[in-house]
C-alpha cells in the first residue's frame, strides 16, 4: 500500500498548478527548480514532496 499525502501538500500543489500550469512539466527535477522560482518553500523536504505531487498530477493531466 502507498503513502497518503498530507492535505497541505495537495492543497498547495493544486493552487500552484492552477497559477503556473504552463511552467510545470512531467519531470521532477525541472519542477523542483520551478518551485524555487515561483514560491517560497521553507524546507527541502517540503519542496521535494510538492514537486513530486505536482509531477504526479501533471502526468495525469497529460493523458
From TrEMBL:
GO cellular component: ribonucleoprotein complex; ribosome
One BP term from GO: translation
Protein name from the UniProt record: Small ribosomal subunit protein eS17
NCBIfam families with a match to the protein in the record: PRK01151.1
Similarity section: Belongs to the eukaryotic ribosomal protein eS17 family.
Keywords: Ribonucleoprotein, Ribosomal protein
SUPFAM superfamilies named among the record's database cross-references: Rps17e-like (SSF116820)
Gene of this entry: rps17E
Source organism phylogeny: Archaea, Methanobacteriati, Methanobacteriota, Methanomada group, Methanococci
Example GO molecular function: structural constituent of ribosome
One family name in Pfam for this protein: Ribosomal_S17e
Taxonomic source organism: Methanocaldococcus villosus KIN24-T80
Domain of life where this protein originates: Archaea
Amino acid at each position: 500500500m502507498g503513502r497518503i499525502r498530507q492535505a497541505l501538500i495537495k492543497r498547495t500543489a493544486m493552487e500552484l498548478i492552477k497559477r503556473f500550469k504552463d511552467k510545470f512539466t512531467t519531470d521532477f527535477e525541472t519542477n523542483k527548480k520551478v518551485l524555487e522560482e515561483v514560491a517560497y518553500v521553507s524546507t527541502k523536504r517540503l519542496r521535494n514532496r510538492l514537486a513530486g505531487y505536482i509531477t504526479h498530477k501533471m502526468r495525469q493531466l497529460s493523458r
